[in-house]
Amino acid sequence: MVAPPRAQELTARLLQAMRQDSAWFTEYVKTSAKDGEPLPYHPKMGLTEAEYHEMLQLAKENRMVPASHAQVEFRRVTATRFELDGGNELPELTGVVIDLDADKVTTPLGVAEVRGVVEASPDQKATGPWEGIHWSSTQLDESRMTGFMVSFNLGRLTESGRGILYYSARRLTSGSVDRVTRVLTYPLERQ
């Protein structure tokens, strides 16, 4: 993900202000943060109020850019079951199994069993609009700090017609966290 240059500049200034007074910032987050909302503006953020709001707006303009190229193999195990092999470049995809009969995706970090549809939307700013299939599951035991959250998506980008694979997973084991997020695009035949 790459932010516009102006967003990078403003974010760097905010981070510098946070480092200069980290105790204040930690307390400010504790007392002012609300779930799903940006922090309210404060002059100690190292930005003017207008710059802060500009930074928040520019954050919506982050775009995906290629980080590298890799081979991922989709092996057909049966007519409705596929296994991924990410090789050396994407080992976290190795062993992912898409089972269309069982309508689930098994990953090394958990099984995604709740299926949904992804509809193309202009709100899909980072990737551009795309549509496809989504599988997800969450099983957490917060008292033991164990469980997993998995989201696996396959689809087609509206503009380019390329395929998109979006995989995000977290597994908690005795308080430690394994996590992976991968977004891949690949050529597909146009229909």
3D architecture notes:
- This protein has 2 domains: 5-59, no CATH class; 73-186, no CATH class.
- A hairpin with a 2-residue loop joins strand 4 (104-107) and strand 5.
- By secondary structure, it is an alpha+beta fold.
- It is globular and about 60 Å long.
- The two termini are 29 Å apart.
- It has helices spanning 5-20, 22-32, 49-59; strands at 73-78, 81-85, 97-99, 104-107, 110-112, 114-118, 130-141, 146-157, 163-173, 176-186.
- The strands form 2 sheets. The chain has a 5-stranded antiparallel β-sheet, with no helix packed on it. Strands 6-7-8-9-10 form a 5-stranded antiparallel β-sheet, with no helix packed on it.
Gross morphology is globular
Low-confidence stretches: none
End-to-end Cα distance, whole Å, is 29 Å
Give the count of helical stretches.
Answer: 3
**Amount of beta strand:** 35-45%
Structural class: alpha+beta
Q: Count structural domains.
A: 2
Q: What is the chain-wise order of helices and strands?
A: HHHEEEEEEEEEE
Average of per-residue pLDDT values:
89
Strand order of the largest sheet: 1-2-3-4-5
Radius of gyration: 20 Å
Task: Kindly state the percentage of residues in helix.
Answer: 10-25%
Biggest sheet character:
5 strands, antiparallel
Number of strands: 10
